[in-house]
Amino acid sequence: MQRLFARGRGLFLAALIGAVAPAAAGAAAPVEVQVVVRSGRSGPDAISFVYSTSAKAAPARQSLEAQARRDYEKLAAALGQPGAPAKIITASEPAHAPPTTSAEGKLPNLVNRSAGWLNIGPLLKVFARYDRLTLTYFVEPPFQFRGPRGPFEDPSLMMNVDEGGMIFTYHVRIKQHPGGVEGASLPSFEAPAGVRKLAYVLIALIAVTAGVAVYALLQYWTQREEVKS
User: Fold this and answer.
1) Residues 6+ apart with CB under 8 A from 200
2) The pTM is what?
3) Residues facing residue 105 across a β-bridge
4) For the residues of 90-156, what is the DSSP string, one character each?
């Protein structure tokens, strides 16, 4: 897990450096938050997010670490895990880079494996106050990706998706920052009803198949014992 998040911070710094250069030329603003999710075949998903703002000065570090904890708590609550523990880190990676602050932990439902769906909606709503986000998902196979797909654009945000094997990266620009409830006006990007229904059908079929196999095995052993007696 430490290697995962070290890689996540490295991905963030690479994205940040790549974004700063065109920003200096007036082409684009830098990515402000990088999120990295790793989903295994079972159990909760590992997540890390890093802010681009330098945490070099003590007041900045305290403020960013408090913000990271609040953002993680909001995300955990949105995913049905209020009070889930998080590790807050401020460090320089690589060593000569300005220190940045990150949060990391494990949360369920960031990847809906049965539906082939990446649950980006809660992340967008938690970080709705920022202009530019990058969400990177490392998904262990088997996984049949069905969405959300890009490009996507509406009055509130614009999004593109890069797909490479089992790595999916969303490049998000939030155009309108909603007031009131954070992110309330942003798309939720929930799995379509048909996709959810298909996932339930597959789960039911697996359960039925397993039940038939168990029944057949019991019948076999029963008949074998009768033959012995």
Assistant:
1) none
2) 0.75
3) 47
4) EE-SSTTSPPEEEEEEEESSSEETTTTEE--HHHHHHTTTSSEEEEEEEEPSS----BS-S-EE-SS
Please say whether the beta carbons of 156 and 175 come within 8 A: yes
Rounded Cα–Cα distance for residues 196 and 190 (Å)? 9
pLDDT at 83 over 90: yes
Most confident stretch, 100-109, 170-179, 185-194, 203-212:
100-109
Q: Where are the domains of the chain?
A: 2-189, 192-229
**Long-range contacts, 60-65 (Cβ 8 Å, 24+):** 61/90, 61/99, 61/101, 64/90, 64/101, 65/90, 65/101
Position 205 pLDDT exceeds 90: no
Cβ proximity of 132 and 30 under 8 Å: yes
Q: Cβ neighbours of residue 60 under 8 Å, at least 6 residues apart?
A: 53, 54
For residue 163, the tally of other CB atoms under 10 A from its CB is 11
